[in-house]
Amino acid sequence: MWDESKCNRDDKGRFAEKGSGGYSKEQLDRAKQRFKEKLKREKENKSFIDIQLFAVDYRKMKTRELQKSKNSFNKRIAEHEYKLKYPNRVYSEWNSLTEEKKNNVIEHWKSEIENFSEQKSSIVNELKRRGIEDE
Length: 135
Hints:
58% helix; mainly alpha; 4% strand; flat
């Protein structure tokens, strides 16, 4: 039974259960079912990764948003390069870590730089496709 006292109105004035983020019960159920199906596929195939979960469609973004994102990635790359250059300044317990842990942290920072660079490259390519020159 639908109980209006247990509901909120979403931004369009529709009723939605509290905690649902404005989605209907049917939408939430479909999302849960899709998630369960993906988990089942992952268990069957250990190497399965649905990369589309993380993909950003830069074609749908406004030019200004792309430029801001590119600047953000530049900052994140610079931050991580600083961490690589001066790990003891950003990681207070750096000197007490084992060599293995230090190597793991360094590899993580390097992979972050690589990921940020790839994302930035995709943004630059989209800006070029739009005829906007890169700085």
